[in-house]
Specification:
With 144 residues, the protein is α/β, with parallel strands linked by helices. Helices cover 35% and strands 21% of the residues. Strand 3, helix 2 and strand 4 form a beta-alpha-beta unit. Bound molecules: flavin mononucleotide.
């Protein structure tokens, strides 16, 4: 099974989550600057929330995603608290006819690593790391 991980991250939080997920599946987490070129059964795709929505670059990435090369998307997001990016990933992908798994991961950062406030991102708290690990276990079970 071919698994891919792509992330959009301004401050490093989503990148940190992407790298945790990728490590568990023994693949590399790549930014959305890297298009999906070979068939990918499961594409983990994540981004942050900025001003109530996902970054335009992530929206564009989904629009450019070759439908025939993606079996399904599993969405993840880091956020102050809003779920908008998860919802938008689902909406954009489904609009293109790409399946989006019902399981999705939302890691709430509150003000942690909020780059707008000059805080450094990418340092996940223990409970946030555990949440990612639990999520990965659920997916691993599902695809066993
Ligand atoms: C410019 C900016 C705007 C943000 N707007 C929101 C927002 O509207 N709602 C929210 O829940 N979080 C918001 N956040 C928090 C981010 O979603 C959160 O810090 C996330 O982890 C950022 O991901 P990144 O570090 O991968 O870029 C904002 C952060 C920044 C820097």
């Amino acid at each position: 099974m071919n698994i891919g991980v792509r992330y959009q991250s301004r401050g490093g939080n989503t990148k940190a989550v992407a790298e945790m997920i990728a490590k568990e599946f023994d693949v590399q987490a790549l930014s959305i600057e890297h298009p999906v070129e070979e068939y990918t059964d499961i594409l983990f795709l994540g981004g942050g929330v900025y001003g109530w929505k996902m970054d335009d670059s992530l929206c564009e990435f989904i629009k450019q995603l070759p439908k025939e090369k993606v079996g399904q998307i599993i969405a993840f997001s880091t956020t102050g608290f809003m779920e908008s990016t998860l919802k938008q990933i689902r909406q954009e992908a489904e609009q293109k006819g790409i399946k989006v798994n019902k399981n999705e991961l939302l890691v709430k950062m509150m003000l942690r690593g909020h780059s707008m406030l000059g805080l450094e991102g990418g340092n996940l708290k223990k409970e946030q790391q555990e949440k990612v690990q639990e999520f990965v276990k659920v997916i691993q079970k599902e695809i066993e």
